[in-house]
Request: fold
Amino acid sequence: MTAPKKLFIKTYGCQMNVYDSERMAEALGGQGYVETNTPADADMILMNTCHIREKAAEKVYSELGRFKALKVDNPNLKIGVAGCVAQAEGAEIMRRQPAVDLVVGPQSYHRLPEMEAKVRGGGTALDTDFPEEDKFEKLKSRPKAARGPTAFLTVQEGCDKFCAFCVVPYTRGAEVSRPVSRILDEARNLVERGVREITLLGQNVNAYHGLGANGDESTLAKLIWDLDKVDGLERIRFTTSHPNDMTDELIEAHGTCSKLMPYLHLPVQSGSDRILKRMNRSHTVESYLKVIERIREARPDILMSGDFIVGFPEETEADFQATLDLVKEVKYGYAYSFKYSTRPGTPAAERAQVDAAEADERLQRLQAQITSDQREIQESMVGRTVSVLFEKAGREPGQMIGKSEYLHAVHADVTGIAKGDIAQVRIVEAKTNSLRGEVV
Ligand code: SAH
Ligand code: SF4
Ligand code: F3S
Reply:
């Protein structure tokens, strides 16, 4: 028997990349690879990259420089670049860093085994096509191995919205939804392997419209109800949603589907209608707030989360103030804010840029507001009883860490509780990044 080859994968970017890295590891598992946590031991290093902001993309090249050095001691080492930088830059990556053997875009991962064989043979391999065949079907490997209690499951990929700042429609391509039956098969397989909570993923997950069992187009809400019937699956989440695709049935499901967790990530990007229009977001502040009002009617305790861009071209202090006002009004349990980053090829890249120091200063003010709201919400949890899905051992002996239905990290001293168990926990203390509780 030959020793297995070792694969080191480094994942950047969004949750879909986390999901994709698992699929790539499984696909290469068929080629005799096992995963390692040590790049120096690897026969193949794969970087699964993100192109969303300039910093994310530049990090790839500095990291590649470090990995290249490992080839000196290990001439068998092959280096691959996957993900959104691979899609956006293609062959340019190999020109900039000749140590790279393989470049594969997100729509071609099912072709990795052939590509691996090619680079093992001494060649290079490049594939950034948007092929017709069903990538997900070909990537299906169904390993039986046990896994942790939570999992991601991609149900939709790509985006047709073309926000003026965003590379995703170019790197992930047009919106595609997977058929319901395949998603249910994958969910059942995950549950058999110990998964209790599934987060449905899509760049525009609530635009999901995959083929249903009866031959009709399904919807995200219908898919959630189908998953609700999967025995052993206890929790359902989904991300990321666009405000314009929050349908009545999806809003309603938050009030009626007990497996659907009371947490919604609904990026708005800006609180100024003028900027939203320039961003090509196709919703207004008012329509966004209306969605939130309705979802809070359906599920009063829902925790809101969002994304913001500050310093978008032409953003004035008044526009920024409107964003601050919106944040204060919604009160987010979590919010992610970014300084606008110019992405080549997107419409906003051509416009008058906001002064960088000004944008930095706005970002700090926004983050201060967000942190203070977040803190207040966390403190308001003290005294409340939440349900916690325990995921792993805590830092101290006898302690475990899990997530509440609101996605807060909760740690508690436990006895007789195992990974994957859900227990009622009374919160006794709010720490900076987690809550401490007592099992009731
Ligand atoms: N599909 C999701 C998120 C895509 S990227 C959505 O539609 O919301 C995640 C976040 O990155 C975005 O919500 C946005 O806030 C931020 N982002 C995207 N492009 C950016 C850019 N050019 N500069 C700064 N932030 C950006
Ligand atoms: Fe990007 Fe906009 Fe599509 Fe989200 S909706 S992925 S921000 S283009
Ligand atoms: Fe980044 Fe691509 Fe995800 S650009 S955020 S890895 S879709």
